Amino acid sequence: MSKIHIVDEVAHDRAKVYETFKDQMVELVPYLPDIQTIEVKDRQEIDDSTLKVVNFWKANADEVPKLAQKFIKPEMLEWTDNATWHLDEWKVEWVMEVGFLPEAVTCKGITTYVDKGNGRTEVVIDGELTVDARKIPGVPRLGAGAIGSAVESFVVKLITPNLTQANRGLERYLADQ
């Protein structure tokens, strides 16, 4: 298991940041260069303080290097984000289901929105990514642990900038409103 820990600051007040991520993700797509589409699959108010949202994401295949395009299949650039928004706690619990090998890859965590005053919000992402390489076809059992750890580290390094890039996209989106 590899830990994901990101602390980033957004130049807008907490209520606006939280509400925009919760309610307007689809509108952010033009501000997220690595994302092709986001589709809301389900949205349920559980009670006065809990909202569940399921979004289906597709990454932009144009970002895949030409050399890798024959190996990277479209389903590898898709994932489902299952989010539980805790409205009275300014946080969201999330579980991402990848479009390929979902039985081998799990990614989950919590994002917390902290009011820093002066119209600024600290976004804290704490999560974990686990790759069970034993469940990946072709990976030898003997080396599965080391391969899984290596893949986890690589993916965490790859997705960390994309997670903060969402905050920059949100800032540009709100500036345009």
Could you explain the architecture of this structure?
This protein has a seven-stranded antiparallel sheet with strand order 1-7-6-5-4-3-2, with helices on one face. The model has no long low-confidence stretch (mean pLDDT 88). The longest helix is centred in the C-terminal third of the chain and has 33 residues, at 144-176. Helices cover 27% and strands 42% of the residues. The protein is globular, with a radius of gyration of 17 Å. The chain is built from three helices and seven strands. It has 177 residues and is α+β, with helices and mostly antiparallel strands. The protein has a single domain (2-176), classed as 2-Layer Sandwich (Alpha-D-Glucose-1,6-Bisphosphate, Chain A, domain 4). Pfam families: DUF2505. This is DUF2505 domain-containing protein.
What is the rounded distance between the termini? 40 Å
Number of H/I helices: 3
Structural class: alpha+beta
Strand order of the largest sheet: 1-7-6-5-4-3-2
Shape: globular
Radius of gyration: 17 Å
Task: Find the count of extended strands (DSSP E, 2+ residues).
Answer: 7
Describe the largest sheet: 7 strands, antiparallel
Can you identify the CATH class? Alpha Beta
Sketch the topology as an H/E string, one letter per element: EHHEEEEEEH
Strand content: 35-45%
InterPro entries: DUF2505 (IPR019639)
Protein name: DUF2505 domain-containing protein
Pfam family, one: DUF2505
